[in-house]
From TrEMBL, chains A, B:
<dbReference type="GO" id="GO:0008453">
    <property type="term" value="F:alanine-glyoxylate transaminase activity"/>
</dbReference>
<dbReference type="InterPro" id="IPR015424">
    <property type="entry name" value="PyrdxlP-dep_Trfase"/>
</dbReference>
<feature type="binding site">
    <location>
        <position position="361"/>
    </location>
    <ligand>
        <name>substrate</name>
    </ligand>
</feature>
<feature type="modified residue" description="N6-(pyridoxal phosphate)lysine">
    <location>
        <position position="197"/>
    </location>
</feature>
<keyword id="KW-0808">Transferase</keyword>
<comment type="similarity">
    <text>Belongs to the class-V pyridoxal-phosphate-dependent aminotransferase family.</text>
</comment>
<dbReference type="InterPro" id="IPR000192">
    <property type="entry name" value="Aminotrans_V_dom"/>
</dbReference>
<dbReference type="InterPro" id="IPR024169">
    <property type="entry name" value="SP_NH2Trfase/AEP_transaminase"/>
</dbReference>
<keyword id="KW-0663">Pyridoxal phosphate</keyword>
<protein>
    <submittedName>
        <fullName>Aminotransferase V</fullName>
    </submittedName>
</protein>
<feature type="domain" description="Aminotransferase class V">
    <location>
        <begin position="42"/>
        <end position="204"/>
    </location>
</feature>
<dbReference type="InterPro" id="IPR015422">
    <property type="entry name" value="PyrdxlP-dep_Trfase_small"/>
</dbReference>
<keyword id="KW-0032">Aminotransferase</keyword>
<dbReference type="Pfam" id="PF00266">
    <property type="entry name" value="Aminotran_5"/>
</dbReference>
<dbReference type="GO" id="GO:0019265">
    <property type="term" value="P:glycine biosynthetic process, by transamination of glyoxylate"/>
</dbReference>
<dbReference type="InterPro" id="IPR015421">
    <property type="entry name" value="PyrdxlP-dep_Trfase_major"/>
</dbReference>
<dbReference type="GO" id="GO:0004760">
    <property type="term" value="F:L-serine-pyruvate transaminase activity"/>
</dbReference>
Amino acid sequence: MTGLPIDPPPRLLMGPGPVNADPRVLRAMSAQLVGQYDPVMTGYMTETMALYRAVFRTANEATLLVDGTSRAGIEAALVSLLEPGDRVLVPVFGRFGHLLREIAERCGAEVHVREVPWGTVFTARELEEAVAAVRPKLVAIVHGDTSTTLAQPLDELGAICARHGALLYADVTASLGGNPVEVDAWGVDVATAGLQKCLGGPSGSAPVTLSPAAVAVLDGRRSIEAGLRDDRDEEVLPASRIRSNYLDLAMILDYWGERRLNHHTEATTMLYGARECARILLEEGLDAAVDRHRRHGAAMAAGLRGLGLTLFGDQSVRMANVVGVEIPDGVDGEGVRGTFLRDYGIEIGTSFGPLHGRIWRVGTMGHNARRDAVLTTLVALEDVLRRAGVAVPTGGGVAGALGSYTQEAA
Amino acid sequence: MTGLPIDPPPRLLMGPGPVNADPRVLRAMSAQLVGQYDPVMTGYMTETMALYRAVFRTANEATLLVDGTSRAGIEAALVSLLEPGDRVLVPVFGRFGHLLREIAERCGAEVHVREVPWGTVFTARELEEAVAAVRPKLVAIVHGDTSTTLAQPLDELGAICARHGALLYADVTASLGGNPVEVDAWGVDVATAGLQKCLGGPSGSAPVTLSPAAVAVLDGRRSIEAGLRDDRDEEVLPASRIRSNYLDLAMILDYWGERRLNHHTEATTMLYGARECARILLEEGLDAAVDRHRRHGAAMAAGLRGLGLTLFGDQSVRMANVVGVEIPDGVDGEGVRGTFLRDYGIEIGTSFGPLHGRIWRVGTMGHNARRDAVLTTLVALEDVLRRAGVAVPTGGGVAGALGSYTQEAA
């Protein structure tokens, strides 16, 4: 009646994420709990804040975890910063841009959308023109959107926002740890992420960082749990009250900060995991990890081309950790994915919206950005494609396309 | 620079929760991930829904997990059910009642509060009079409020709500699994919980159940992520749109239900843990687990009385799994807690609001509702109290108060 113990079959997750967790992360998560105000626990929290400052490349004091998936981090940022009627600019180049738009709408903001076709990104000039025209309080944008596999260059957008008095929020869930992300150098005010992509952990914890300017917005809206906090009892104007308690970053900051005011009951096991993800990444070195993603991601793309497949989207701005390939004419995309999972235990991704049925998405990220994972996936895919009737090139093919990669260090 | 591996010192968590996780739960959480639409994963999800139906004692099809702490479950229920201007009745008998009030206010509801002094609960007659006077759409109430250690009897409230056309929401986070909770028999429409109390898991996943009447309210507000879902493109009136995306139970239901529409990336490891918590509880048997909490909780209370301490609140409605004791005059309550943690590795709870500095809270729940944990705590507390200058009774004391408990099965 209660079913069997958890014992999933071995899977190699080579989709757009989630991917396999690094075994070190799962081991860290198996540690026993401590109380949420135990000095050991507050020590882990303080260390985790410092670790994620390094991961985000920021000096932001306000760097912490939200207890939920990457989507919880996004909503925490938007609901905490946006008041009803605030103007927001959302440049959309894929599925997750639409998500930002939708969440901002639910916050009651006045949302202005700019869109480019899926498979392309915005030029800095297009972004500046939009910011100048909309004059938003906040620009909310996705950095790497796995739906199209592309990364919007953000290195000029912070300066553009600063010139026009706007804050910049970036969703770096899919890019962080596998592509360059420079929160301070790029002038990003708020960035949110998750563990399940290049960080090599399970979904369920959202690292978030806020600049002093963003914290000042929170301070302006700072609210209280009247009667629930012992140290404050002033009332707050309902008009500016943050609409969520659970995702109220002002309160969550008070919990992570020196005052350590009670809020939620920290998800200790997820915190253990998030801390270990950052430790693994920083032990390797952020630049080295980005280079590893670049190298294995490029090999995956070259190998897919060697199988005769056509890559999707503007390759000059493709993320290092995921590549889209067009499903060959006459091939049942979902059938191939099913065979791949059943016969090889390997998962690749389907796609959404305008790309549904048109492309597969293949990821090479986190713990799975490794040579053996890349080669296994390519060899297995070659077999499955042949069985699906695809005319895979012979004489050369994958091995030819990969060149010296197969002899390189793993 | 990246700090040491997670390796917390051994702690016995005998506060109001979180408590130590059952090692079986942590082992289940160490399993590797599978993809979120892998048939293995959707199988685990379907099993988890069935397990929590048994835990909540409900036939509700809409029984699932919210990916966040127990507070995320509370907010998901309230933000999904309440529209701005809706009348809500919140009977408050402790800290967490104030939390319900505050979250309902942030949802824009018209909140009506009734309060009784901390240490007491409402009579059924008081509740019925309040419901009749306010005529709310929803009554939102805490079942067991750890701040006062009391449980509000709910066995008549469902019928009262039904007579007056109100829905009933109950926060059963602290009571579920250690006290009788009968969702269907009591007529509770929506109940939410967490893992970190009697369920013996880490915080970070919130089991939720919704009656068909509650689901009908969600259906009336059902919203879309325009452009993000392939199968629907109708627009929805902004007036009734659920104000949160992350905690939108209509969308989360579509993800857990047969349509399996994409929403957040499931927190797979937390789901493994939540599933195992329910399996452990149901293998023991819900009635047996409640009886175990009653037995060890009663022994803890008797032992504390044997130490000369005075119990807090109306003992006739105290929760089985937590007891409040008055801090003896002249004793530094936080000093004793600190010594207790440092010298014995045992944590007991402080308290909030009007009880701050007045009582300690001692929990006996989940994996820690065991004889050895009870006896260890009492023996250690006797030593720490003596060292703090408390005149602990001699000749009898703990052993005398416990009687045959020390000879019973563990």
